[in-house]
Amino acid sequence: MTKFVSYTDQVYRELKMSILMGKIEPGDFLQERAIAEQLGVSRTPVREALKRLEFEGWLETIPWKGVIVRDIDKQDVIEVLQCRLANEIFMIKLITTNITDEQLHDLKSIYERMKASLKEEKAEEFIEEDRRFHMYLVQLTNNSRLIQFIDNLSDHMLRLGIRAITRESRALETLEEHEQLIHALEKRSVDEAVKAMEHHIYQTQETLMNMLEKVLKGEGKN
Q1: Residue 197 contacts residue 99 (beta carbons within 8 Å)
Q2: Which of 27, 73, 126, 220 is the most exposed place for a label (fewest CB within 10 A)?
Q3: Are 19 and 69 in contact (CB under 8 A)?
Q4: Of 56, 30, 35, 42, nearest in space to 6 by CA
Q5: pLDDT tens by residue, 171-214
Q6: Any long-range contacts for 101-104 (C-beta under 8 Å, 24+ apart)?
């Protein structure tokens, strides 16, 4: 049983990362047999992984055709950002007055790695460090359910973020917004930290909505 679960998780992670990194693109059909052969597993864990990805909103079953990768639309952006705003503002309220100097040092280290990856023009590395920045903050709450929820949101944000960074060059603004948040946390100012997080999320939403508008008009295609 343990072996079966590990195979399912392996397929799940492989497919999800391929979607996140754009190796499998929106509209691509996924075939159980081809995936099973490529990964060297039976079709059963592939089928279970596809069901899990569909439940999480990554895939969609088209009757009589098969399973395809869902594209991102405006409603996806709105829903993810609404959930992120509510939960990350709550997160900030929980941690701001209790964050330690050592924890701030660790947060700054992530921020410095973001700066370095931007300088080296490593977009995917930048976005992964951005995800790590936010996940580090929520882990400071010690609220396991909040951590799990934001972790799931972060996967969707990772996919959105890759498209935003490569299309809109949002990285520099993101760094500035993270720096503002760090300064607010250093002051242990809940009001300033909340405002900094709100500004960051709203700016992210604006960038993503503009990006989608251009894609719909046929302007943002590679």
Answers
A1: no
A2: 27
A3: yes
A4: 42
A5: 889 999 999 999 999 999 999 999 999 999 999 888 888 877 77
A6: 103/140, 104/182, 104/185, 104/186
> What is the torsional sign of CA 8, 14, 19, 25?
negative
Give me the chain's average pLDDT, please. 87
How confident is residue 218, by pLDDT bands cut at 50, 70 and 90? Answer: low
Determine the Cα–Cα distance for residues 203 and 181; give it in Å rounded to an integer.
14
Q: Which of 209, 211, 206 is nearest to 221 (CA)?
A: 211
Task: List, as one string, the DSSP characters of 156-192.
Answer: HHHHHHHHHHHHH--HHHHHHHHHHHHHHHHTT-HHH
pLDDT value for 205: 86
User: In this structure, what are the phi and psi dihedrals at residue 67, rounded to the nearest 5 degrees?
Assistant: -100, 130
d(CA 133, CA 147): 13
List the structure tokens of 17: 């990362």
Cα separation of 115 and 92, whole Å? Answer: 23
Record the pTM: 0.77
Say how far apart CA 5 and CA 216 lie, in whole Å: 40
Q: What is the pLDDT of residue 40?
A: 92
Identify the DSSP state of 21: T
Which residue, chain included where needed, has tokens 């392996």?
10
